[in-house]
Structures are given as C-alpha cells and as structure tokens.
Amino acid sequence: MFGFSIQILFIVLPGVLALYDYHLLPETLEPQHYDLRILTHLNDTAQYFEGVVKIDLWVLQTTKNITLHAKNLTIDKTGISVKSSRDSNCIENVELSEKYEFYIMYLCKELNAGEKYILEIPFKGQLNESQTGYYKSSYNDTENKYKTHYLAVTQFSPTFARLAFPCFDQPNWKATFNVTFGYHKEYKGLSNTPVRKCEKHEFLEDYIWCSHEQLLRTSTYLVAYAIHNLTNAGTVTSLTHNQVVFRNWLQPKIVNQSDFSVEMAPKILKYLEDFFQLNFPLSKIDQLISPTHKFRAMENWGLVTYQENAFVFNEAYDLQEKKETNCNTMAHEFSHQWFGNLVTMKWWKDLWLKEGPSTYFGYLVLDALQPQWEWSDGKITKDLAYFFRHDATNMTRPISRDVKNSTEVLDQFSKYVYEKGALTMRMLHKILGTENFFEGIRNYLQKYAYQNVEQTDLFSSLQEVANENINLNVVMDSWTLQEGYPLITLKRDYKKGEVKVNQKRFIQQNNLQLETQCWWVPLSFVSQSDPNFEDIQPNHWLECPSNETTLKVGTSKEWLLLNPQVYAIYRVNYDEHNWKMLINTLQNEVDYGGIPKINRVQLMDDLLALAALGEQSYDLVFELFEYLKLERDYLPCERGITLLQQYGSLLKDQAAEDFNLYLKQQLTPHYRRLPKLKLIDSIEIPVNEIAFRRFIYTQSCLYNVDDCVSQAVMLNTNDSSISVPANFRQLVYCIAIEKGTTWDFQQMMKLFKNSPTPAQQSAFASGLGCSSNFSQLKEFLDYAIHSDTKSISDCYIQAVTAALKRDNVARETKQHIFDHAEMLNKKFKRKDLEPILMHMVKELTTPEELSELKEHLKDLSQFKEPKLEILGIRQVVMFNIRFRIN
Ligand SMILES: *[C@@H]1O[C@H](CO)[C@@H](O)[C@H](O)[C@H]1NC(C)=O
Ligand SMILES: *[C@@H]1O[C@H](CO)[C@@H](O)[C@H](O)[C@H]1NC(C)=O
Ligand SMILES: *[C@@H]1O[C@H](CO)[C@@H](O)[C@H](O)[C@H]1NC(C)=O
Ligand SMILES: *[C@@H]1O[C@H](CO)[C@@H](O)[C@H](O)[C@H]1NC(C)=O
Ligand SMILES: *[C@@H]1O[C@H](CO)[C@@H](O)[C@H](O)[C@H]1NC(C)=O
Ligand SMILES: *[C@@H]1O[C@H](CO)[C@@H](O)[C@H](O)[C@H]1NC(C)=O
Ligand SMILES: *[C@@H]1O[C@H](CO)[C@@H](O)[C@H](O)[C@H]1NC(C)=O
Ligand SMILES: *[C@@H]1O[C@H](CO)[C@@H](O)[C@H](O)[C@H]1NC(C)=O
Ligand SMILES: *[C@@H]1O[C@H](CO)[C@@H](O)[C@H](O)[C@H]1NC(C)=O
Ligand SMILES: [Zn+2]
C-alpha cells in the first residue's frame, strides 16, 4: 500500500499540469479575431521581431484561466491585459507547459460565459534558422558575391505559428486576422492579403508600418508573412472570378529559370476554380521562393512559399521530369486553397483529408492542362507500387490516427499518408463514378467552407450522391482507420461458372497474416469476351466481417480480371489456369486484349509478390514476364524490368551472369526499335517518349545490348556533348566516364568543380559517379562529402546511389559509406539517406549480412530505418534459388 499513498501524494501536489494533462486546448474560449502587429529587425547585427497580439475571445464556458500556445517567445507578463467592454481582469500568474507547448495565464477573476474579451499580449523572439516559425534566410548578391541579403519568412504548418506569436494553434480554432507589419523600408513586406496602407514608424527612422487587408476566417497554420528583397519574376492576372493577381519572388540569379512556373500558376488556379465551381476568395497570390525552406512548398492562403528547387527549371540542364514534378507541386498547393484552406480538418489526425484530395486533384489538373505528359498514369502507377510495398509490412499505421504532440503531428506528413490518401480519393472517384463524385465534392466544399471537418463529413457528402446502396462511412472506415490492405483470391469453378472470392491481409512475411482484419472490398470484374475497362463501378462487394463470397461470373473459356484500372487498393491472386489465360492474351492478342497498362503493371507486381510468398510459382512469373519483349508502353516496361532487377541484383556468380543475359534478351527488341543513340541530338522526341527512351538506352548500355555503349561514347567524343539534349546528357556522361580514360575523368572533374549551379553539378556528378575505377570514384566522393556547399554534398548521394548498382565498385562504395557514416548522419536527413539505405538492403542475401549492416549503422539517428527487414531476406533467398533452377 506504500505505492498507493505515493500516488495520492502526487495528485494533491499543487503541480498545476496535473489538473490539465491533455494535448488539446480547453474548449472554454473561442478566438474570433487576431489583431497582429509585428516589427521585424533584420540586418547584419540585429535579427529579431517584437510584437503585440490582440485576440478577441468569446467565452464558451466560464473559466479562470486562458490557455493557448507559445514556444520560444519572450513574453513580459506584466504587459498582458484582459478586458471586456464592461470589465477589466488581471493576470495572477503564468505558467509554461513544455510538454504541450502551452502558455497558461491564471486570472484574478473568472471570465464569464457568453461574454467577449480582448486579450493583449506583447512578445519578442529571435529570427531562427530552423526554417520553422518566423525564420531568417539569406543569399549572396549576384554581382558582389560577398554581399549578403537577408529575408525573414514564416513556416507555420503544422505547429509552428506558436513560435512566432501566442495563439490558439490548432486547425479547428479558425479566426480572422488583421496583420500590421513593420520593417525597414529597404525591404518589401508580404502577408496573406494585399497591403491596405503604409505609414512611417512613430520613431524608428526609415521603418514603416504596413497594414494588410483582413484575412478571412482561417486556421493559424495558414497565416504567413515575410520581408525580403527578392525580385518579382512577373506579375500575371488570372482569369478567375476575382481576377487574382500573381507575383513571383525569387533571387535575381534564378529569375530567368521561372518562366514556366510563372506562366502555369494562373492557369492552374483558374482550372481548379472551374473544377470545384467555387470561387477562390482572395484577390492575390504571392509566390515566394525561399533560399531555405523546410518543405517543398507550403500552401499559405494567398502567400504560397517554395523551395527554390521546387519552382525553377533550367532548360539547359534539368530533366523533363523536373518540370513536370514542379508543376505538380504547384497544382497540389493550389488544390489546398480549397482542400485545407477553405475546408480544414478539425485535427491533424485527419491530415489525409487535405493531403489526399490535393495530391489526387493535383494529378487531374496536370492531365487536363498538360495532357501530353500523361502525368496521372505515371504517378498513380508509382504511388500504387509504393503503397503495395509499404503497407505490406506490420509496421504501418492507419492514415487517420490520433496524434498527440508536435513530433507526432509532424510525422503524419509522410509519403505514405499523401499517397494512400490520394489512392483512397481515387477509389472513391471510381466507386461513385465521375459525375456523382464531383457533385459530392462540390457539395462538400460548399457546405463546409470556412469550417472544420472530420472524415465522416466527406463520406456523408459523397453518400448523398451515391447510387450505391452501401454505407460509405462503414466502407471507407475499413480503409482509413486500419493499416494494410487485402489480398483478394479468386478460385474459379469453371464447370459451374462460379468464382469464390475471399480476402485476407497481405503481409510480406507470410507468417504474419493478421487474421482479424477485413475490408469492404469493391469488386468489378472484366471478362475476356467483354474487355470493358472504363465502365468499372463495382457490381459486388466483399463485406466485412463476412470475408468470402461466391459469384456467378464469366464463362469457362475466358479469363476474368478483377479490379480494372487498379482503382481499388488491393492485390489479386487467381488460380493458375486463369493466370495462364491472362498470360496467353498478353502474349498473343492485339493490344494485349484490351488490358490497360496500369493493369499490366499490376499483374507483374502482384505475381512476383505472390511468388515471393510462395503463393505462386516463379515458373509462372517467368512465363508472364516473357510478354515484356512485346510491351510497347513505358510504364509496364519500366516496372517489369525494374522488378526483375530488384530480384536479380541479389544473385551471385553464374546465376548473376545468366540473369544478366536474360535481361539483355528482354531489352534487345526494345533497343532495336529505337533510333540510334548517336542521332539523339538531331531528332525531335515527343515529350511522352523521353523517359521511355532514356530508360531503354540506359538499361541497354548497362547490359551491353548491341552497340549501345559505342554509340554513347561516340556522342561524347564528338566534343559536342554539350549539345546532347539535357534529358539524355546524364546517360551519355555516365557511359563516357565508365568506359573512358583517367583523362576523361579529370576533365569532367574540372567541369564539375567549375559548375555554378546545382543543375550543372548534378549533371556532371551523374557522370563521375559511373566511374568503374574505385580510386577515381573515391577522389570524387571525398571531394563531394567534404564540401560545405549543400548542392555539392548532395552529389555524394547521387553518386553512391549509382555506384551501388555497379558490381565492380559496389563493395568499396559500401565501405566508403560506412567509413563516412557519421558525417552523412550529420549532413543529411533521413529522407536523403533512404535511397542509399534501400540500395544496400536490396543487395543483402543472408541474415548475417543484414546484421552486419545494422551493426555498422547503429547509433546513427538519420539511418534509423525501421523498415530494414521489410524487403524480407527470406523471399530474396528463395528467388535466388528459383532462378538458378530455371
Ligand atoms: C540593425 O538594426 C538594429 C535594430 O533595428 C539597429 O539598432 C542597428 O543600428 C542596425 N544596424 C545597422 C548596421 O544598420
Ligand atoms: C483552465 O480552465 C479549464 C476550464 O475552466 C480547466 O478545464 C482547465 O483545467 C484549466 N487549466 C489549468 C491549467 O488549470
Ligand atoms: C527554441 O529556443 C531554443 C533555446 O533558445 C533553441 O535551441 C531552439 O533552436 C529554438 N527552437 C526553434 C524552433 O527556434
Ligand atoms: C556570401 O557572403 C559571405 C559574407 O561575405 C561570405 O562569407 C560567403 O563566403 C559568401 N558565400 C558565397 C557562396 O559566396
Ligand atoms: C481589421 O482592419 C480593418 C481595417 O482597419 C477594419 O475595418 C476591421 O474592422 C478590422 N477587423 C476587426 C475584426 O477588428
Ligand atoms: C534590393 O535588390 C535590388 C535589386 O536586386 C538591389 O539593387 C538593392 O541594393 C537591394 N537592396 C537591399 C537592401 O538589399
Ligand atoms: C513486426 O514483425 C517483426 C518480425 O518480423 C517483429 O519483430 C515485430 O515485433 C513486429 N512488429 C509489430 C508492430 O507487430
Ligand atoms: C510525443 O509522443 C510520443 C509518443 O507518445 C513520445 O514518444 C514522444 O517522446 C513525444 N514527444 C515529445 C516531444 O513530447
Ligand atoms: C474468414 O471468416 C471465417 C468465418 O467467418 C473465419 O473463420 C476466418 O478466420 C476468416 N478468415 C480471414 C482471413 O479473415
Ligand atoms: Zn499538401
């Protein structure tokens, strides 16, 4: 009983937090309006801000304290005041909760329910370099490269507004904002809304105060402001309802690389406004491209901020993919102006409610505005691949899950949540059909504009337009509130014309199947005699918990294919006979029997995953992969070859040689179909062919197909390598260095060192990283890793990623990584190092090698990657053995 009395002692102690130990603010007060005045000091010697925030509070429940968020701010409590029109209160005491980042003010007397008060708090803070809150950044002058220019910018999402001013920093506490912003007049100031008027500072010479128009009801994480002396690359008016005016702010030296983004911005916004049939409510959007930025981009209402790399495009050096990716980023941020800014999740647990739709609609925007890129097919295919792999481990979590502190909130922003969120939206789209889906989406936006939602609000809006007699909330909860996905297995009774369908969770290590999970699975079948892959709304459902059903579909002589367009996120296994009929069609029928490319990709991905689990044979896998020689589309071709390589890279000795020969045979017909590589600078290549051709040329050279290598070398020695189109230059540089002499290497090393821009550095690095002589490669790796310039040390990652793929340098490269692990750990973040790590893991063939790798990397926080096991050593070894038998 001794322990018990101690517990009682703890509870009665006057530790105030024991009274309020919860991660959300009390629901006693509602902030309705913020009046924010901030003066920023920013020069060589002074870099801080000071301000006053006045918050209009509506008292929902009588209370004797005011609890809000503040972190790293200096607050003079004697300056705080709390007043209503009838009454003046005072502060008895204040307290900080580090755990919850709360600032708690204990009042002299109660605030009365139903009354309105004005809380005024003065505060000060340092402009930090952590790229969160209100932070500073800098760049050197273009002409006088030793002159430094500063800027100060905000990054409030998700939980960093509290670093800049005291506030109710939760997405559900929406309020209006009046921002008045003071700074030295040599700077330009921006906030979410246009400047209303500017006036001189009361006493500071050359300082001005500029007040901005009132911002509509919004969450704190979307408020933004900045002072800077960047250059406007162009002012463009869009054709939207408000004729929204765009300005685009960049460092002078990269202004000339912004044309494409500047041109696309107003078009994207206009498209989305028409698409959602809901006007964009602000009158301007400033796009600020910051030399340092924590995320690729941030959708602040009316003041969208970007990383430089996510906005600029260098025609001479960058790949087409970069242009497309950047455009997609902008489309994503602009989709947020509706999904997130206008309609906002109540709490970060439902982050997917803004990221899923913004990601998915971002894809649709690109399809509409740049159809020649065939963007969404490519992205969806990649997302599916990532999802099926990632969500097949026992370490994933539901996309909607509660989060209880800032670290957990930040962790929600993962590729997994974005991509599964997008795939979930796509599944809803296909289940409901295009017309209903968009009607539901428009109703939802209209209904919840300026408000907050939970996922059930989205599902209920869609339910209203659904023809289906299903409960969308129940159906969708099974996908969003639990991790993982099902494997649907079909067993056909060809005599009876029946098919038995069941589900179980797909887990990569098959001893781990969690029998208790089930999903509401939409079933759409396509049959060989009626290959309609467009009209695909589900005709049946596999219910949950009932997990098996028998249906009458198809005739005995034809294949069945489940899940056309892979619109629902599950894998499918068929009986062997059905697989064989599918393979036969892929091999022999015109246009693959109408089976769309995204299904062709998935058939390969599923079958290989099933073989790895021992659910199907590798013989069947190789039978299917034979059709690859006939494949004319990029996506299936790329996936097929890449999948084979992933497994093949684990083979050793004779098996490895045999495998290389096999891949060479797969590639040869593709290579022979393309024009000679030597002609690359003289023929126009359609934009949707660029990636395909580069892939085939690159792979063909890697496996020594025909004259690929000598063609590439010829291109380089023409001494016109600079005239090789940017999209193919890396390929040519790579071969030139791999097959070239020490002199070639030294020449390119010189070019690398003299390159002024990251794009150029990266192009040369892609060549240098291909050296087949490790002592040369080491010279480059040492130079890159020790550089203080970020874009140069980034080239280390690029080079080792290439080198790890090359047998003759892989071992020494791995050692180089181990030898520099601590330095890498300091210089890079986990997401930068992930590709290297994944490559090293893929090469492992025994559990002993895995232990060795873990031993080398233990204690290094950025290398901590809980997914080390997921590739499953076991399956890899099995593949190894099976291929040898083949
Ligand atoms: C920098 O700003 C501070 C605060 O505004 C000011 O006192 C100081 O004189 C400024 N220094 C220079 C070099 O302009
Ligand atoms: C502040 O007041 C609310 C409601 O009156 C109460 O629930 C909460 O525990 C108080 N907070 C603290 C830290 O005392
Ligand atoms: C908060 O302040 C601490 C101590 O001054 C500092 O170490 C930390 O970097 C600051 N955090 C941010 C995000 O600025
Ligand atoms: C930028 O200017 C600072 C201050 O003069 C100087 O120390 C630094 O080396 C310059 N950086 C570059 C990349 O030129
Ligand atoms: C915000 O500022 C504008 C312009 O001064 C003013 O008309 C408006 O009343 C202010 N809003 C609030 C809620 O104080
Ligand atoms: C602002 O930028 C302009 C043009 O780049 C330059 O002429 C001016 O000196 C800069 N001012 C400051 C204070 O950096
Ligand atoms: C996942 O599986 C591994 C074994 O493969 C096991 O060690 C680990 O505890 C499991 N994790 C969870 C969350 O079940
Ligand atoms: C956030 O919560 C997680 C899980 O409860 C915990 O492990 C972590 O230490 C917490 N982080 C902070 C900064 O409180
Ligand atoms: C399917 O349902 C049956 C009976 O309802 C149950 O025994 C079985 O464990 C379930 N299997 C899976 C994979 O959920
Ligand atoms: Zn986003």
Automatic annotation (TrEMBL):
Biological processes annotated in GO: peptide catabolic process; proteolysis
Entry coiled-coil feature ranges: none
Cofactor: Zn(2+)
SUPFAM superfamilies tied to this protein: Leukotriene A4 hydrolase N-terminal domain (SSF63737), Metalloproteases ('zincins'), catalytic domain (SSF55486)
Gene Ontology MF term list: metalloaminopeptidase activity; peptide binding; zinc ion binding
Compartments reported by the entry: Cell membrane
Annotated GO CC locations: cytoplasm; extracellular space; plasma membrane; side of membrane
Domain Aminopeptidase N-like N-terminal per the UniProt entry, residue ranges: 31-222
Protein's membrane topology: Lipid-anchor; GPI-anchor
Residue span, ERAP1-like C-terminal domain: 559-864
Sites annotated Transition state stabilizer: 418
Pfam families, per the entry: ERAP1_C, Peptidase_M1, Peptidase_M1_N
Keywords: Aminopeptidase, Cell membrane, Glycoprotein, GPI-anchor, Hydrolase, Lipoprotein, Membrane, Metal-binding, Metalloprotease, Protease, Signal, Zinc
Signal peptide segment: 1-18
Residues where Zn(2+) binds: 332, 336, 355
EC number: 3.4.11.-
Cofactor note: Binds 1 zinc ion per subunit.
Residue ranges annotated for the Peptidase M1 membrane alanine aminopeptidase domain, each copy included: 260-479
Active-site residues per Swiss-Prot or TrEMBL entry: 333
Protein family: Belongs to the peptidase M1 family.
The protein, known as: Aminopeptidase
